[in-house]
């Protein structure tokens, strides 16, 4: 039995307990440590995210992982791209005999990372991407290690995907709060102008917008000035 088989259940349990509300670099550091514990050696971990501008690496535990990701981005093909765009698992058993992704294979052999497992984030996530696990030993002859690496990468992709989703949700909540605060102060400014200049709500908003454009100042900042001083900022 491969030594990884005995360690894997406990490691997967620990992986499920990794807090997803922590910054991504800290989560990746913990994931890389668990990968080492489960699989041996020093696996390099990276995270690929696919956006409107293409794929990019948003986090890595080692520079070699970022470098091998970049090779695939430049080539427009590779295990990490396939996994990230399909949400599935892609395995490169041995870079020395790999034919599907020649650019990746050459770079992986040169970097002494002959095994690779890329696991896409679960389907339906708002953040498309995946987790990449670069291993020093090849997986071709060691079916036990390959199976363990696939299981680990699949579970780790869920943890990292949840981390990114949490971060995005928190960012959206922050933006929403800023928008609500801006709306509140703009409504206050409209009230000041309506009372002072006998304007309608529409006229007050148009006046705020006009001054914002004339002074090249954010509408919210103009509104804050009106609320605090009772006057428009100098044009």
UniProtKB/TrEMBL annotation:
PROSITE patterns noted in UniProt: ANTAR (PS50921)
Pfam families tied to this protein: ANTAR
Transcription is among the record's keywords: yes
Keywords: Transcription, Transcription regulation
Molecular function in Gene Ontology: RNA binding
Domain ANTAR stretches: 166-227
The UniProt record lists the keyword Transcription regulation: yes
InterPro entries hit by this protein: ANTAR, CheY-like_superfamily, GAF-like_dom_sf, GAF_ANTAR, WH-like_DNA-bd_sf
Name of the protein this chain belongs to: Two-component response regulator, AmiR/NasT family, consists of REC and RNA-binding antiterminator (ANTAR) domains
Organism phylogeny: Bacteria, Bacillati, Actinomycetota, Actinomycetes, Geodermatophilales
